Structure formats: structure tokens, C-alpha cells
Amino acid sequence: MTDSSKNQAANVSYGTKIRGKWNNECYQIEKRLGNGALGTVYLANSRKGHVAVKVGNDTMSISSEVNVLKQLSKVQGSVLGPFFYEMDDWEVNGKRHPFYVMEYIHGEPLFSFIQRRGKEWLGILMLQLLRDLSVLHREGWVFGDLKPDNLLVEGAPPKMRWLDVGGTTVIGRSVKEFTEFFDRGYWGLGSRVAEPSYDLFSTAMIIINAAYPKRFDRPKENSEAYLMNKIDSSSILKPYRTILRKALTGKYQHALDMRNELFTLLQEDNPKSTARVKTTSRVTTRKQSKKTKNHKRTRWVETVLLFALILTIYTLYLVGYGF
User: Fold this and answer.
1) What is the pLDDT of residue 262?
2) What mean pLDDT do residues 280-297 have?
3) Are the folds of 17-103 and 108-269 the same?
4) Is the bond preceding residue 157 a cis peptide, omega within 30 degrees?
5) Which residues participate in catalysis according to the annotation?
6) Residue ranges per domain, the chain?
7) Of the candidates 43, 52, 56, 48, which has an alpha carbon nearest to the alpha carbon of residue 15?
8) What does the alpha-carbon distance between residue 99 and residue 97 come to, in Å, rounded to a whole number?
9) Distance from C-alpha of 294 to C-alpha of 292, rounded to nearest angstrom
10) C-alpha distances in angstroms, 62 versus 67, 69, 84, 118, 323?
């Protein structure tokens, strides 16, 4: 699957030092992290440590992405994208390449994490993704190029992080960057107008991609029936069937609606686990309460004995001096 437009950014080799024309900061390239329609992202070493550097040719497009990163950083209570550090120009061979520098996220690819930790994490991480998408949509944006390649899992407890905001588009405009497998326009199941349901279609395709890592091409006709058949043929996807169908056909208008239904499904799907967690919590609480009471009783007895010992020593002292 390919992106909607060709990347014309400079191909920067290992060891190259990118020095900003205006801010004079230096970044030594270590490896390529990924390509987008508007540029290439590299891992680089700097005086701040490891950072991610995105190099492009179009100053307006790079500036647009920087504005998105700045907007996301203002969203209270959420970390939706990488932290933005600076924007500058790099001149090489008489040509200017705009670039910007952002946080390098030390995370694990989404599907690699799920494969290592278990398929139950798919639903849990999608809950996180839908929560964050609801915040993004509330701010007036859609992610656009939503795909596993743009998602990492980091930290403990595990948290979903977004990598590339190059496709992020103001609601109401045309999505400016996409990947065919996750694009509803490619499947003939909707337009490329930036609206919440566009991201929710992509979320459904991420879940489907988890069951079909090699992906698959669209049929010549009736994409909806084809995708539903793929869902019914997978033991991983069957439990999500109703939710996936609604997302694929644009029935959800808000990310929180899809999230609430997914949350209810996960609760119903694991009632024993939920009950076991609650029971364990109650037992632990009772044990802690009992332990606290016993500890208090022991401290009280120790205090009484200590007081009696001090009183006895003091009495002997008075008798010895003839008081």
C-alpha cells in the first residue's frame, strides 16, 4: 500500500550532519524512521540526545505540520503527538530543505507489542486510541493518515503514542495524506472529507490489519461484503463484528460512541476476569485492614509495657534515694 503522493524530500545518509541555517543547531543522522508524503523522518543525535528530524522540500507543508504539533501540545490533559522542539532550514548543494525537530519516542510498534503481550491488548489499546481521537476531533482536526506505522506503545503502564501528524487535517477539508488500506475512499465506502468518521473507519481497518498482517487488496465490487467476510473468517475479529461494521459504514459520528461500545464489549467478553480482579481487590483490602488493626493493637500493647517499665524504674529510683 502506498501513500497518496510521492515524497520528494532529500535522501539523507547515515552520519550526515544537518546544521540549521538560522538556529545553528546540529543533528547527526543515525537512521531513517519512515517516509511520508511530505517528507522523511530520521533518528538523529543532538545535544538534547536522540531526536526525530523530519526533512522536506515544501516550506508551507512543513510549517503546516509544525502548527499542528504546536496545537496538539496545547491540548490540556493529553499528549497526542511528539513534543515539538524547533523548525529551521538546511542548505546543501545549493538547495534549501526545511526541517523540523521533535521528540523521539522510545516505543514499540503497535502490532509487535500486541504479539508479545497477547491479543487482549488490541481492544485495550484501541480504547486509548479512540479516547485520544475524541480529544483531537474536539479540537477540530482529524488524524487522516491513521495506520499502525504511525502508532507506538511506550512506558509502563503501556500508552499509545502518535508518530507522524503529516496527515492531520482541519475538519471539513479534504484529507491531505492517506494510506490506501486504511482509506475509506480506496474501498469505496466514503469520501475523503476530513470528519471523525474518516478516522473511525481507519481505526476499524487497524483492528482488521491486526488479524491480517500482510493486508489484502480491495475487490472489484462490494467492498463492504468482502470486508465483513474477512471479519467473519477471523477468530480475532469475530467478537468485534458489530462495532467494526458500524465503523466501516460510517455509523459512528463520534469517537466516544465507538469507544463506549467497545468498552462494554470488552467488559461483557471477560466477566470472569473482571470478577476475579474485583474479588482479589476486596480480599487484599480486607487483609490490609486486618493487618493494620493487628499492627495498631501490637503498638498499643508495646506502649503500655514501655510505660509500666518506665514507671517501675522511676519507683525504684525514688526508693533508693529515700523519697
Assistant:
1) 96
2) 45
3) no
4) yes
5) 145
6) 17-103, 108-269
7) 43
8) 6
9) 6
10) 9, 11, 12, 38, 93
Of the ranges 118-122, 265-269, 283-287, the best mean pLDDT one: 118-122
Dump pLDDT digits (tens) for 202-254.
Answer: 999 999 999 999 999 999 999 999 999 999 999 999 999 999 999 999 999 99
The single residue listed with the C-alpha cell 522542539 is 85
What pLDDT was estimated at residue 38?
76
- Determine the Cα–Cα distance for residues 256 and 2; give it in Å rounded to an integer: 29
H or E element: which one contains 146?
none
Determine contact, residues 141/134, Cβ cutoff 8 Å. Answer: no
The model's pLDDT over 160-208, given as tens digits with 9 standing for 90+, comes to 999 888 789 999 999 988 999 999 999 999 999 999 999 999 999 999 9
CA angle in degrees (0–180, nearest 5) for 96-99-105: 160
Backbone phi and psi for residue 20, each to the nearest 5 degrees, phi listed first: -65, 140
- Rounded Cα–Cα distance for residues 44 and 239 (Å): 42
* Cell digits of residue 11: 535522501
> DSSP string of 131-143?
HHHHHHHHTTEE-
Amino acid at residue number 263: F
Residues 178/192, Cβ–Cβ less than 8 Å: yes
| DSSP symbol at 189 | S
Q: Which residue has the cell 533508693?
A: 320
Give the neighbor-by-neighbor strand order of the sheet with 151-154: 108-109, 151-154, 159-162
Is the separation of the CB atoms in 30 and 42 below 8 Å? yes
8 Å CB contact between 42 and 35 = no
Domain at 108-269, CATH class? mainly alpha
Architecture field, domain 17-103: 2-Layer Sandwich (3.30)
pTM over 0.90: no
